Amino acid sequence: VQLQASGGGLVQPGGSLRLSCAASGSIFSINAMGWYRQAPGKQRELVTSITSGGVTNYADSMKGRFTISRDNAKNTVYLQMNSLKPEDTAVYYCNAQVPPHMAYWGHGTLVTVSS
Fold first, then answer.
1. CA-to-CA distance for 25 and 21, rounded, in angstroms?
2. Residue 73, Cα to own-chain centre: how many angstroms?
3. Of 33, 82, 85, 95, most Cβ neighbours within 10 A?
4. pLDDT by residue (tens digit) across 72-88?
C-alpha cells in the first residue's frame, strides 16, 4: 500500500484547508484510513479515521471542526479542516490499517496556521 498525501499549506486562523490522501497498491486489504498529526516537540496523535464501512472516529479537539470523508472510486480520503487554530499547526500524516497488524504511512504534509 502506498499513500500520497497533499493539500497542506499556510492558512490564517479561522481559515480552512482540505487534505487529500490517495491510496494505491493493495487497496483491497485496507480496513481503515485516517489522519494523524505531529506538532513540534509533541508525539504523533490521532486526528480522525474512517473504516471501509464508513464509520468515523475523531479526537475530541477536532470534533465539529474537522471532517473525514472518502471517495472509494478514487481510493482517496479527505480531511476537511475548518476553523483552524494556531495549535493545529503540525505535520499531518495519512495512515492506512491492514489487518491484522500492518500500518502504512504517507509522507507528511505540513499545515501551518498563522497570521
1. 13
2. 18
3. 33
4. 888 899 999 999 999 99
